[in-house]
């Protein structure tokens, strides 16, 4: 079994990732938590956890980990200081620690619009932070997949997406489907060293990922 560290495990998308991985025969999830009182969530699920803060030292969190899913985020509405600390500097810190620990693959949850932050004035700083973290990952020499979804919703996932390296429509996508996309990206043949955008669509997730991976 591969040990998968999930940064942002207590967030809405992170919890969905943990739930899916916890029922998998291939992956052993490890929830990265910031406060010790958060451990009860995962103790109840019989999920391993590790105490680490993206604004502090993360070197212990990556020890013995095979792959990482970064699903943490300030949400874009917590102010520039928090956005920089988590979405940019926190991500960069975890990428560097992953490289040092020889982690096999790093899956990044980013955001549509990160390729052109100036076009989205109300989210500009948040998207700039995401873009900086994405670029650092690309240059890290780690194996990676960067997923840039549209606006996240809490609708039930239908397992169907519109997936491409660049989409014209910003669109929406359920968190359930984003969680599945991130988890499927753990498989080495899928979306290798690629940055992709995703919104809800008509194509089943697995076939969309295979098709895009083949180019």
TrEMBL record:
Pfam families assigned to the protein according to its UniProt record, in alphabetical order: NAD_binding_10 (PF13460)
Name the record gives this protein: SDR family oxidoreductase
Domain NAD(P)-binding: 8-189
CDD domains named among the record's database cross-references: SDR_a5 (cd05243)
InterPro entries: NAD(P)-bd_dom (IPR016040), NAD(P)-bd_dom_sf (IPR036291)
Domain of life: Bacteria
């Amino acid at each position: 079994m591969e040990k998968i560290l999930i940064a942002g495990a207590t967030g809405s998308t992170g919890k969905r990732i943990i739930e899916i991985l916890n029922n998998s025969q291939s992956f052993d999830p490890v929830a990265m938590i910031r406060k010790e009182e958060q451990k009860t969530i995962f103790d109840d699920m019989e999920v391993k956890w590790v105490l680490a803060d993206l604004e502090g030292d993360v070197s212990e969190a990556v020890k013995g980990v095979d792959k990482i899913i970064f699903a943490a985020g300030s949400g874009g509405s917590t102010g520039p200081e928090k956005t920089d600390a988590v979405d940019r500097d926190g991500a960069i810190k975890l990428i560097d620690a992953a490289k040092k620990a020889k982690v096999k693959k790093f899956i990044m949850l980013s955001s549509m619009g990160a390729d052109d932050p100036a076009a989205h004035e109300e989210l500009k700083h948040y998207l700039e932070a995401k873009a900086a973290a994405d670029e650092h990952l690309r240059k890290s020499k780690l194996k990676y997949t960067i997923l840039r979804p549209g606006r996240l919703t809490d609708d039930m996932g239908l397992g169907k997406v519109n997936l491409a390296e660049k989409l014209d429509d910003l669109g929406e996508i359920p968190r359930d489907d984003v969680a599945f996309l991130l988890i499927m990206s753990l498989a080495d043949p899928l979306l290798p060293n690629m940055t992709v955008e995703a919104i809800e669509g008509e194509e089943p997730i697995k076939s969309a990922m295979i098709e895009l991976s083949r180019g």
